[in-house]
Amino acid sequence: MAIIGREEESQELTAFLSSDVPEFLAIYGRRRVGKTFLIRHFFEKQKAIFFNITGTKNGSSSQ
């Protein structure tokens, strides 16, 4: 499936991946807008490692 209308995001990801130093990238936003699909589609063609981590909005760091 092709990605339509995400040229700007794809260019930003390409620039991010082209960096000569290790980088950290966080993708966030509203639910169901294609964040995970964009990342998976982009990185499936790259020699890169990525982690998909999900969390809660009102989470706590206390135990």
Large-scale geometry: globular
- Return the domain count: 1
Alpha carbon gap, first and last residue: 42 Å
Unreliable parts: none
**Helix-residue proportion:** 25-40%
Q: Provide the structure class.
A: mainly alpha
Largest sheet: none
Order of helices and strands: HH
Rg result: 14 Å
By DSSP (H or I, 4+ residues per run), the number of helices equals 2
Mean pLDDT: 83
**What is the percentage of strand-forming residues?**
under 5%
Number of β-strand runs: 0
Task: Explain this structure.
The protein has one domain (1-54). It is built from two helices and no strands. The longest helix is centred in the N-terminal third of the chain and has 11 residues, at 7-17. It is globular and about 35 Å long. The termini are far apart. The chain is mainly alpha-helical. The protein has helices at 7-17, 35-43. The mean pLDDT is 83.
Describe what is shown at a glance:
The chain is mainly α.
List the helices and strands and how they pair.
Elements: H1 7-17, H2 35-43
Keyphrases for this structure?
63 residues; mainly alpha
